[in-house]
Specification:
Organism: Recurvomyces mirabilis
Order of helices and strands: HHEEEHEEEHEHEEEEEHEHEEEH
Shape: globular
Distance between the termini: 37 Å
Largest sheet: 8 strands, mixed
EC number: 6.3.2.51
Bound molecules: ligand PMT
Radius of gyration: 23 Å
Strand order of the largest sheet: 7-4-1-8-13-14-15-16
Structural class: alpha/beta
Enzyme class: ligase
Strand content: 15-25%
Number of helices: 8
InterPro entries: CoaB-like_sf
Protein name: Phosphopantothenate--cysteine ligase cab2
């Protein structure tokens, strides 16, 4: 059905709002340097006819103050992105890993953070007391080390950090533009947990919001912490009213639409859909596919995201991908179970990304073949 006049005007207005984001919210200071690194990386791999995956990973923050003391965060440890990156590299891709600073990284993820402290993998040699890898972990670490060294030697992994949602959006746009010459060989795998609400630059206060009434500031111009609101001017997005902190956030434009329609029209685009209510997941994933007309939505529930995901695509319909029964749990005690009860307390014996990435790579190979007018081999 053709869009009605009103619908059409509405969508034009939304597009303008999205473009407007980049004129009203400032470019991050190190953007040009990061884009230059990416351009060199992409050109190198384009010349080698390699497929390039841009993986986003980790949560974006929403600062409440320009000189930031307080911020709102989105949940994501970076496990999905970092683990997937390793499997994309294994599948022959070059990977741009756009990640939240200090979240999990490919390869080092095996030995970082509280559950995998690297010190637990080390021991003193009984011969000379030197610090060495415990014999129990030699084989596993040797494999990880070899793959890490290969990625370094072949220059197939580029790490680019972000912290705020603003940095994320500027980087995503800039990188997408750089990836355009790759055509269908470019792939976007959007696993980052992106804020839906934010503080626009013009409503951001400069200094730390003062909780004590004695220090409340009266300014309303974005440089103070006062409630303001006179003469139609909107109050700062985060401000004190008596003893209460008021936070009034604007919606983040749905940039996925711009990515699909304008920034990366030839690339394969995969978004993730995170839900906590199981009854909503399939509908929301279908809705996202219809709304943005990209290639694939991967739905996951917060509690079971390491055990099962739902693929929703036009070509493939709906398909669950699950860690095979019997290989589902690897508890600290080594006990193996089948159910998904108490899953948060356990780790699956198989990384579900080892099943997700080959499926995605297969779909991508078909898209590339189609764009070149041939059948996939
Ligand atoms: O890192 P882990 O701990 O392993 O967790 C992984 C994960 C659960 C975070 C990951 O698998 C996941 O689901 N990531 C997407 C989470 C998310 O942002 O979902 P959403 O429903 O808010 O957004 C869905 C999609 O819309 C996203 O792919 C995003 O690209 C897009 N979006 C989001 C916000 C926005 N303003 N515009 C968008 O286009």
């Amino acid at each position: 059905m053709a869009p009605s006049h009103t619908q059409f005007n509405g969508s034009v207005q939304k597009d303008a709002e999205m473009q407007d984001y980049f004129t009203t919210n400032p470019q991050p200071p190190n953007l040009d340097r990061q884009i230059t690194l990416a351009r060199t990386f992409i050109n190198h791999h384009a010349t080698a006819h390699r497929r390039v995956a841009l993986i986003t990973s980790g949560g974006t923050t929403v600062p409440l103050e320009n000189q930031t003391v307080r911020f709102i965060d989105n949940f994501s440890a970076g496990t999905r992105g970092a683990t997937s990156a390793e499997y994309f590299l294994e599948a022959g891709y070059a990977v741009i890993f756009l990640h939240r600073q200090f979240s999990l990284l490919p390869y080092s993820r095996h030995y970082s953070h509280s559950t995998n402290c690297f010190l637990d993998f080390m021991t003193h040699s009984p011969v000379d007391g030197a610090v060495v890898v415990d014999s129990e972990y030699q084989t596993q670490m040797s494999g990880v080390l070899s793959r890490y060294r290969q990625a370094k030697k072949e220059n197939t992994l580029l790490l680019l950090p972000f912290v705020t949602v603003n940095e994320y959006l500027w980087l995503l746009r800039g990188l997408a533009m750089q990836m355009q010459p790759l055509g269908a060989k470019g792939l976007f795998y959007l696993a980052a947990a992106v804020s839906d609400f934010f503080v626009p630059a013009e409503r951001m206060v400069e200094h730390k919001i003062q909780s004590s009434e004695d220090f409340h500031q009266k300014s309303t111009n974005g440089n103070g912490n006062g409630a303001g609101g006179g003469d139609g001017e909107r109050a700062p997005a985060a401000h004190m009213e008596n003893t209460r902190l008021i936070i009034d956030l604007d919606p983040v434009p749905k940039f996925l639409k711009l990515l699909v329609d304008g920034w990366a029209p030839q690339s394969m685009i995969i978004s993730f859909k995170l839900e906590t209510d199981p009854s909503l997941l399939a509908n929301k994933a279908r809705g996202a596919l219809e709304k943005y007309s990209h290639h694939l939505v991967i739905g996951n529930k917060l509690n079971t995201r390491k055990w099962e995901v739902l693929f929703v695509s036009v070509e493939g319909g709906e398909k669950w991908i699950r860690v095979p029964a019997g290989r589902r749990t690897k508890s600290m005690s080594g006990a193996v179970g089948d159910g998904l009860e108490d899953v948060e307390l356990r780790e699956p014996a198989v990384e579900i990304e080892s099943l997700i990435v080959p499926e995605v790579a297969g779909m991508h190979a078909e898209l590339i073949a189609k764009s070149e007018g041939r059948k996939v081999q």
